[in-house]
Specification:
alpha/beta, 6-stranded mixed beta sheet, about 25% helix
């Protein structure tokens, strides 16, 4: 499996790109802000890749800002949980007012092709098998994606040494704890984790060192 990424300028969001190898089709995860179309084109050219879909872990702008230009530019669909789809048109519903004020005047447009995903949905793309895992807490429609049973795209649910914030509209610490307990802790230690921000990690490392997971284990 080919896994590469670049970081968007705003908030250092990881835009992950997955494929079976060079010269193949690929999927793009969470193209952030500002418009990262150029960065993506450079990375695709580096590995001679052709995008066929964009996966969205959740509806916050630092993960979705470039979805519409990239999806419509390449003629590919955006795939997002049904509970966060509204944020493509109304990002203000999941952000603080001050942040949205900085983006006044921007017209928010959905990609022409949006596919809504449900918890547990399994689908095959670019020679890889994906499983959508609904893990609310950071947002109502936060998703993680298990890839070939080997890799977890964790979005802003799980980071190396931390978890996503839960204080924005649509966030819930209780929901996050439930997601961590029921959706993250059961995963195998060897699973590689590709987070929405920061370095790669593994379930085993987070189970051992992530204080949020340790607290959950201690409360069981």
């Amino acid at each position: 499996m080919l896994v590469t990424n670049f970081q968007a300028e705003a908030f250092a969001t990881n835009c992950w790109i997955l494929s079976v190898g060079r010269g193949q089709e690929c999927i793009v995860v969470d193209p952030g802000m500002p418009n990262v179309s150029e960065q993506l084109a450079e990375k695709l050219a580096e590995f001679d890749l052709k995008p066929v879909a964009t996966l969205i872990t959740h509806g916050h702008l630092d993960h979705t800002f470039s979805v519409q230009p990239i999806c419509d530019g390449y003629g590919i669909p955006a795939m997002i949980h049904e509970a966060d789809r509204e944020l493509l048109l109304h990002p203000e519903r999941a952000h603080g007012a001050e942040f949205i004020k900085q983006l006044a005047g921007i017209e928010w447009i959905e990609p022409k092709d949006v596919i809504e995903l449900k918890d547990g949905q399994i689908f095959d793309l670019v020679g890889l098998q994906f499983k959508a895992i609904h893990a609310p807490g950071h947002t109502k429609g936060s998703l993680m994606f298990e890839v070939n049973g080997e890799v977890l795209i964790s979005g802003d649910v799980l980071f190396a040494g931390s978890i996503g914030r839960t204080d924005l509209p649509g966030g819930s610490f209780a929901a996050m704890e439930k997601s961590l307990r029921e959706k993250v802790l059961p995963l195998p230690d060897v699973m590689q984790v590709l987070p929405g921000h920061g370095p790669e990690t593994s379930i085993g490392r987070e189970r051992k060192y992530n204080q949020f997971l340790l607290n959950l284990k201690g409360s069981n």
